[in-house]
Design a protein that fits this description.
single chain, 371 residues, alpha/beta, Lyase, Ornithine Decarboxylase, Chain A, domain 1, TIM Barrel, nine-stranded mixed β-sheet, 22% strand
């Protein structure tokens, strides 16, 4: 079967590019002699996870997930060393306990004394990491917060260490920015870990990571594992901030032409907001890619800067590049759209149609969605 035979819209994953991205990150992390704990929140696929973990380039240390549905899915496929990297609520602890009773080691995170007390009082408590805010201003407490030791004491034997995430690295626009943010991330986590150890409290794990900081960190001294995720698949925004090149985007949305407006140099496609997402992250980046970059059926940028300028629910409008000859596409011809934010785009799809550098479908890899 070939891409031209598929019903659209659907998600295409180029295994060649995926493997290249996995190897690039593995080599970057291996320089620091820390473990890679890939975050599966973007890929949500056991097939991708196996490729990410089955490497001789770097030590790996389980995976990271963003939902309990992911945790259950990966445990069911034999991956048991997992960090659930979203603040835990009391109502979810029973599900974590069920997974751990089956032989898993699903670790949770918290920045709350009351939740830590609840965990510490459980007969079969999951191991827990204290979330540190290293500058993003989302979850976590400051590395100097008085709550740090309170939370650790409340967790008791369940206290496994520290977790931080420099999500604000996405605001960086240069390697110098990424190096600076990476060092703040590292220093915050290491400082918090030092405070725990000085107080005689357990801290085996010191976990940090985003794709930009994992690639560009000058030092990871004091860190035990790092958790990048989007690097595997790539997207236009990550390309704009220098995480990878535009030819390193492994996932695209295959779409069909459903309308033509030659006088306006526009095409109508059957991939709208539901298939592409309406993420506009590139709007504030060096180049605005609208709702996605339209490429030919082989994923090549032969259409120049053809941009999805509008995304309704099931319709997309493509503005063709005026500097490139009209491709003369007919109704039913196919394009591939590189996404702004692959995590959001992929979430609408339940499988990858896998290719290996050409238009032949070599595999179909399921994804786990939902919570």
């Amino acid at each position: 079967m070939k891409l031209a035979d598929l019903l659209t819209p659907c998600l295409v994953l180029d295994r060649t590019i995926l493997q290249r991205n996995l190897d690039t990150m593995a080599r970057a992390v291996a320089r620091h002699e820390v473990a890679l704990r890939p975050h599966m929140k973007t890929a949500k696929s056991i097939d991708v996870a196996r490729l990410a973990l089955n490497t001789t380039l770097v030590q790996t240390s389980g995976i990271t997930v963003s939902t309990l549905a992911e945790a259950e899915y990966f445990v069911g496929h034999g991956i048991t060393d997992i960090i659930y990297a979203v603040g835990i609520t009391p109502q979810k602890l029973a599900e974590v306990a069920r997974l751990n009773a089956s032989g898993a080691d699903v670790k949770v995170i918290t920045d709350d004394v009351a939740v830590a007390t609840l965990i510490g009082n459980l007969a079969q408590a999951p191991r827990a990491l204290i979330e540190i805010d290293c500058g993003e201003g989302r979850g976590g407490i400051g590395a100097d917060s008085a709550d740090l030791t309170r939370i650790a004491i409340s967790l008791g034997k369940a206290c496994a260490g520290i977790l931080a995430h420099a999500g604000h690295s996405y605001a960086g626009r240069s390697i110098a920015d990424m190096k600076r943010i990476a060092e703040t991330e590292r220093a915050s986590a290491v400082h918090a870990a030092s405070r725990l150890r000085t107080a005689g409290l357990p801290c085996d794990i010191v976990s940090i990571g985003s794709s930009p900081t994992a690639l560009h960190a000058a030092s990871l001294a004091g860190i035990t594992d790092i958790r990048p995720g989007v690097y595997m698949l790539g997207d236009l925004f990550q390309a704009e901030i220098g995480t990878h090149g535009h030819d390193d985007i492994a996932v695209t949305v295959l779409t069909s032409v459903i309308g033509r407006r030659p006088a306006e140099r526009r095409l109508l496609i059957d991939a709208g907001g539901m298939a592409l997402s309406k993420d506009r992250s590139t709007e504030a980046s060096p180049h605005d890619w609208g709702f996605g970059h339209a490429r030919d059926i082989n994923g090549h940028p032969s259409l120049g800067r053809a941009i999805v300028c509008r995304a309704n629910q099931e319709h997309g409008v493509v503005d063709l590049d005026s500097t490139v000859p009209d491709p003369g596409l007919a109704i039913g011809d196919k394009l591939r759209i590189a996404p702004n934010h692959v995590c959001m785009t992929a979430a609408a799809h339940d499988r990858y149609f896998v290719v290996d550098g050409d238009d032949d479908i070599i595999a179909l890899w399921p994804r786990i969605n939902g919570w």
